[in-house]
Design goal:
This protein is mainly α and 463 residues long. The chain contains 17 helices and no strands.
Length: 463
């Protein structure tokens, strides 16, 4: 049965529509995007395990770190074995993570949740995130930004589905839980049932993606597409660069810095979104003009901007180029952060618009990265190279919150802060984006000495 997952058994037949591939990739990314919805049951975890919010927050941090590490370590394996097998492995690890975590919840062993959702589930996250990338790029050589944007959009949108779904499931399993009250706490039994339901449900959905994933035949190309047109674009190579050689190039590490800076800046807002909008409009009497429910809605709006940016900006990069679109993410991002720090507290609508566009750049940076890698290093081992690049995400996932929380801790206690308390952190992010902007300017075409010989590339592709 497992042989059906081999790359050789998943070659698309003649006449197969390439537009069936993005839905298959979405089936995986929408499921693993649930990792952004962990805040839904955070309070319930704190009460159930009788622990601190910090201890519970470590679950998310472990998962993101493991995402980057597993993507980096397993990237070459994913390229060698093909998307079907990789997506199947991802589904198994992701589902197993929920099941192990449910055991930890039922026995009140928090370390089992760390192991299950954090480590095991995190491996599923990393493998699942990169598994369809190189295949999408090969199916859409004419529109790689659009293709990867369609799939990675699902990762940003996964929380939009998982958040309300988790709340409704908790209310179904626990009659005392109110999904409309942010401070409502679900019991341990409901949490166990939630994790079992999500683990099984996500596995079934991800298997739909596995069943429908195909790779193009070696001689396939889109109707009307001329491969020679790629050569006319700056920074784009038609040669092959291995993952081992890619990390030896300056351009790879410049792009690593670019992604790190873009994610660090964006995640700083994302992590503080709900209290941030309340603090920005807190009056002298200590009360905020923004209600808790409105702040929760603001988080949902940011998720929409995040998701839309992944598709819209990545698609735009197909027309204006990857380097130019990152100049927009980073250059315009600096202006928006400065405006947010200086006039963000003037009107709520202005604050929401500025933060939303910043988050759209954050999402767009993720979705455009695989296409940027394809331009620089070719399609040979782009999935493996992408996996190594995602370690920038892991590092930024630690750095962004540390920078923002460090400044805020020095300004006062949560619930008493105002917009001025955020200014040092926001202006620091301007500097972070400036570093990324310079790094993007330093990205150059890959020197010929790093190119693979045609025979070696063909042998690896067949294997």
């Amino acid at each position: 049965m497992l042989s059906a997952l081999d790359r050789s058994r998943s070659v698309a037949p003649p006449g197969f529509s390439r537009w069936l591939i993005p839905p298959a990739a979405l089936a995986v990314h929408l499921c693993i995007g649930q990792v952004y919805a962990t805040s839904v049951y955070k309070n319930s975890f704190v009460a159930h395990f009788d622990s601190s919010a910090t201890a519970v927050g470590v679950i998310f941090s472990i998962a993101i770190v493991m995402l980057g590490l597993s993507a980096a370590v397993g990237g070459t394996w994913v390229e060698r074995n093909g998307p079907r097998k990789a997506m199947f492995v991802s589904a198994c690890f992701w589902a197993a993570g929920f099941l192990i975590a449910s055991l930890g919840i039922s026995t009140k062993q928090l370390w089992l949740v760390y192991l299950g959702y954090g480590v095991v589930g995190g491996i599923g996250l990393g493998i699942g995130y990169i598994s369809p990338v190189s295949t999408l790029i090969k199916w859409f050589p004419d529109r790689p930004g659009l293709a990867t944007g369609l799939a990675i959009m699902g990762f940003g949108g996964g929380a939009l589905i998982a958040s309300p779904l988790s709340r409704q499931l908790l209310s179904f399993y626990d009659a005392n839980y109110d999904p409309d009250v942010a401070t409502s706490v679900a019991g341990g039994g409901a949490l166990v049932a939630l994790f079992l339901t999500l683990g099984i449900g996500y596995f079934v959905i991800m298997m739909f993606g596995v069943a429908n994933m195909r790779v193009p035949a070696d001689d396939w190309k889109p109707e009307g597409f001329d491969p020679a047109s790629i050569k006319a674009k700056p920074l784009v190579t038609t040669a092959s660069v291995s993952a081992a050689n890619a990390i030896k190039t300056r351009s790879f590490w410049m792009l690593w810095i670019v992604l790190f800076c873009n994610v660090t800046a964006g995640i700083g807002i994302l992590e503080q979104a709900s209290p941030m909008i309340q603090d920005f409009f807190r009056g002298g009497d200590g009360k905020s003009e923004v209600a808790v429910a409105t702040a929760a809605g603001f988080v949902g709006v940011l998720s929409l901007f995040n998701m839309a940016g992944r598709f819209a900006w990545s698609t735009t990069s197909d027309f204006i180029g990857r380097k130019r679109i990152y100049m927009v993410y980073l250059g315009v991002g600096m202006i928006l952060y400065a405006l947010l720090a200086s006039i963000g507290d003037s009107v709520v609508a202005v604050f929401v618009l500025l933060a939303g566009v910043i988050l759209s750049f954050y999402g767009g940076g993720f979705a455009t990265a695989p296409a940027y890698l394809r331009d620089l290093f070719g399609t040979f081992q782009v999935g493996a190279i992408h996996g190594r690049l995602l370690t920038a995400w892991s590092a930024a996932g630690v750095a962004g919150p540390l920078i923002v929380n460090g400044f805020l801790d020095a300004q006062g206690k949560p619930g008493t802060l105002t917009s001025s308390a955020y200014q040092p952190a926001l202006f620091t992010m301007v500097g972070v984006l400036a570093v990324g902007f310079v790094a993007n300017l330093l990205i150059k075409p890959i020197a010929e000495r790093y190119h693979e010989k045609p025979a070696a590339a063909e042998k690896e592709a067949v294997a």
